[in-house]
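Below is how a single chain appears once it has passed through the pipeline. First comes the sequence as given, then the structure the pipeline wrote out for it. We keep one example in the README because the format questions we get most often are answered faster by looking than by reading.
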Amino acid sequence: MENTNAPLHCAHFTLNGVPYTCLDLPAEYGADYFRLPVVLRLLLENALRNMQGAERDAAVAALFGWLAHGTSESEIAFQPGRVLMHDTTSTPALVDIAAMRDALAEAGVDPSVLNPVLPVDVSVDHSLAVEAYARADAAQANLDLELRRNAERYRFLRWASKALSNVRIHPPGTGIMHTINLEQLATVVCQQPGPAGTALYPDMMIGTDSHTPMINGIGVLGWGVGGLEAQTVMFGMPTMLRIPDVIGVRLTGALRPGVTATDLALTVTQRLRAIHVSGEFVEFFGPGVATLPAGSRCVVANMAPEYGATTGYFPIDGETLAYLRQTGRPEDHIARVDAYARCTGIALDPDAEPRYTRVVNIALDAVQMHVAGPKRPQDLHPYGQTREILASMEFTPRAHTPLPRHAIAIAAITSCTNTSDPRLLTAAGLLARKARQAGLRPPHWVKTSLGPGSPAAAEYLARAGLLDDLAAVGFDIVGYGCTTCIGNSGPLPPVVRDALAEGAIHPVAVLSGNRNFTGRIHPDLDLGFLMSPPLVIAFALAGDAERDLSREPVQVTSDGRAVHLSELWPTEAEIDAALAAGQRPDDYRAAFKIASANPAWQALQSPASARFPWDAASTALRRPPFASTEAGSQLGRYTAYPLLVVGDDVTTDHLSPASAIPPDSLIADFLVERGDDRNDLNVFASRRGNWEVMMRAAFYSKSLSNLLCPAAPVGHTLHAPSGRLEPIWDAAAHYAKASQPVVLVAGARFGTGSSRDWAAKGQRLLGIRAVLAVSFERIHRSNLIGMGILPLRLPDGVTPATLQLQPGDRIEIDAEAATLTPRAAIPVRILRADGQAEPLTATAAVETRLEIRLLQMGGVIPAILSDTISSAVRHP
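Resulting structure:
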């Protein structure tokens, strides 16, 4: 591995008369190269292409040094080629950029110099709510409502696309970001002109959504980051990461007929969470991989955050090429992908056994039909056991109702996770057809919806004759966006809402999404099961989550005939035939082009200035105070009050909710006082451009228990010096006025869930200087650092329960900026209200030198501003 700065071997080949060249890493590094997992081969190529000198030497040595133990403490810089965002993560990022442009102008620097240096694609997909459903015009009605509710924010996005270079907005109706990535944006292999021919290199990217790894299913290395980390990349800084541990998941056999990709994804989630995966890269290998079509691989890859991983990577092979052909990519493009993957040794070899940190074996033919839940995606159960699971909830109705006690309130085929796979949607359509033929419909209390990831889905379902069958059982298309999966489920049916208010039922959601955390799907629902799209329809027809569909009928018809699931479930041959009848490669480009030309979107007027003109009366967009050159570091030695103490599995939905703003909440009161309609407040995610709203939304969750004062109302805490119960932001303001620092104490897996940066921004605005937790989820840890908040891991055996913090207890932290290093030991003392002091040693959950710098600067935004101003001074 010596002399890495000598000229590297390059391969040269010709396709259709065009000369191509690429790094020939097999020739450069020999057998050791093939001992690396494919994901590390890709990181090696990225390092060689983007680094020089000693930095490149060190990266290569560290990557091959990894082989000795399957782990490494060394850092590597990763330079993605593009960034993917959605509207509710891009809005706060672009608001930050607009505010940074203001700060630059106020510092005497031309604001227009601040521009992303990488291509940034933004999909407007997270704001579509399911208001209209089970009717033919549902999609148009919901889209019209979305544009009306979000017009101000969408005008801002259009301003950003004009004022900033390299920013492209994909309007509402074009689909879910990850589906767009699969069908439209991903090249798998990129090209650029070079002196010896067209140079080829891998398509590698990051996205500001935790489910970005879906693109791993077609061999593109990408993962989710927080919006703050994405901002560093947008403006030229690399993503620094510790060379990851890589878990190899060996797949053998083949899925049995009737078992779906969803069942495999849920099985993988359960198996990997059981071994406490947390941030590792996962790579699938073995002969079973070759039996999975690309659509199935994408379903499994999508759920990487649910099984705790950074990636869930499938190498390129013939199924990848088949997917590119299926979605209308040109044949010369497909040939380039094939040639490059073979030449560089990143193509799938089903018989290969690379070195992995550890290996997990999954026999595909042992996977069964499953559901997961009712509160976590890793809690796996046979699909017939929902009754037993719900019985453990020990719910006793307080009033009589004709509805089942565990009535299915929402049945949603939703999320890119499953709707991006035509095979799963086709299976759902065939089940709907058989149900229609049997005269079945869901009971009146079930809210049904179908929200595909792409408008192309409507084309192939219609051509196969399945769209009408789906509509006949209530699953009309409600639009092309994330909808129910991210909490935009719209209101519950009135009959469910009334029975719930009376305590007569404990309603349940069934969905084909990826998360079922308490309150995520709807603020009033704490039970949800994840399952395949056809199984969602089956449960919707049953209407009762306690039905054992493995034995009991789905429904009994009016003439007394019992219809069982086995009669409705489609065969593999039926699915194959319907796919052959429905799919056309041209649909993908054509449907996307039509949706992109949405006249209502094009008609939105937006400013044409370099700086955004803020409206002081706006409740959607406000200049944030942390976008300032004056932010400053929060490191140091200080004694703080705990603002809150929380337990395990606090999610980003707890930290910064995305679902509907409750009309009876303190946040609603704040908005109504400023002129908004209490009955049309939209969702929390639509307010991410307004820091005043989002600060008040921090920790606003019915299911979050504050251990300092467990009986406190939602969104309240105890202000220790006065002994008063107050809204959290009021208590934070009182601490700040008295110059009293605050911290947060949490249990395991703090920040699990999505990539939303407001989960960290809200904490910064509340004055939280450090979070002491048993463990952190990867993206939220990064976002905390991006806001200048120090994440500290508590020592083994120390938890919020063992600390038993009481009102008046304080926490002394010694974390000086000058001495902080990655994974440093940080002295901490618990200062009890009675005068006793208990020392402990926490660990800085900081992995890289770049993260140290961000904490020293006070976060990502001050760092970007500092670098931009310095560059302007050097190059006026």
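DSSP finds 33 helices and 32 strands in the chain.

See the next section for the split statistics.
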